[in-house]
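S1.2 Input.
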Amino acid sequence: MKKKIVLAYSGGLDTSIILKWLQENYNAEIICYTADIGQEIDRKKIFRNAKKLGVKNIIIQDLKDIFVKDYVYPMIRGHAIYEGVYLLGTSIARPLIAKDQIRIAKKFNAYAVSHGSTGKGNDQVRFELGYHYFGPKIKVIAPWRIWNLKSRSDLINYAKKNKIEIPKDKKGAPPFSVDDNIFHTSTEGKLLENPKNSAPESIFQRTVSPEKAPNKSSIVKIDFKSGDPIAVNGEELSPSKLLRKLNDIAGKNAVGRVDLVENRFIGIKSRGVYETPGGTLLMHAHRAIESVTLDKDTMHKKEKIMPRYAELIYNGYWFSKERFKLQRIIDLKRSKVNGSVKLRLYKGNVIIHSRITKSSAYSMKKVSFEENKTFNKSNVERFINFHKKKLK
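S1.3 Output.
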């Protein structure tokens, strides 16, 4: 009986080449596994391309609601932003894929798992830390670190030799490197590798340009319960449907574009263009609802740990004791975060329109400029004098 390898398979060029390479270099049955986390997915293509290469066991697992509820929402509650701009759309997806891929490997008694991450990227780390957490005894095969295919040209030649379909973009060249899921789309490579080049409008898939956005602002209302969004414009939705709705609303208003040069975990810089339309709205709205429902100490403690929390996610440490510990701090008073926020969207801008909550954390009487007895101003002088001593 042949040994088995579970391959994280998209049906595209890179993973189809990896599939063929595994067949040539390992005496094993390959199981193709695809996690459906809301990316553009062509099921027919996945089955067609895998079957062409003789694969009998092809699995497509729907993880969209799990991804949003158990991965995206906790990250939003932590306001996780890496290096000031990146909402971690790729980073947060890898732990879930790794976890479920190991589940499949155990189910079919596979001795190894394989992924298509390149030897220079972050994803190889994220996948393999997840693999180790759930299946430390399962072998990991990372083709990009061990094969002789060193460039895009090598891959194209290998694909031609083995009659593997090569996708083309509109200009007939090998495509940009694109990663997408229900939370975001990232685009890298080609002319984007030079930071002096501006991003062409043709690469954007989820957001219109500000010039093409409506000339009239849009209002969107998001309801929260225990820190998580539960409804958009009064309509209660499942996690994945809620995020899709926000993606659509924000994308039409040019919200969610980021062009960044980031510091990868392995030590090199990379330039990418990310679109996170719905996630951008959630981040603004969640901060707004917390501002009227949480006390100062809780909010400031969350703010202090956020950079480390975001870095852990970026580096692939979702399933680490440290991340679990920080998540407990983040969620300590999430039961108090209830209410709704209205956002005004206009040509890429997100403006807080209103915050509505029954929480008593915000006191109109105390902040009022009108004289009242709810705030004792005579204590302020003692407060200032106390802090003067700390200057010495």
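S1.4 Remarks. The mean pLDDT is 93.
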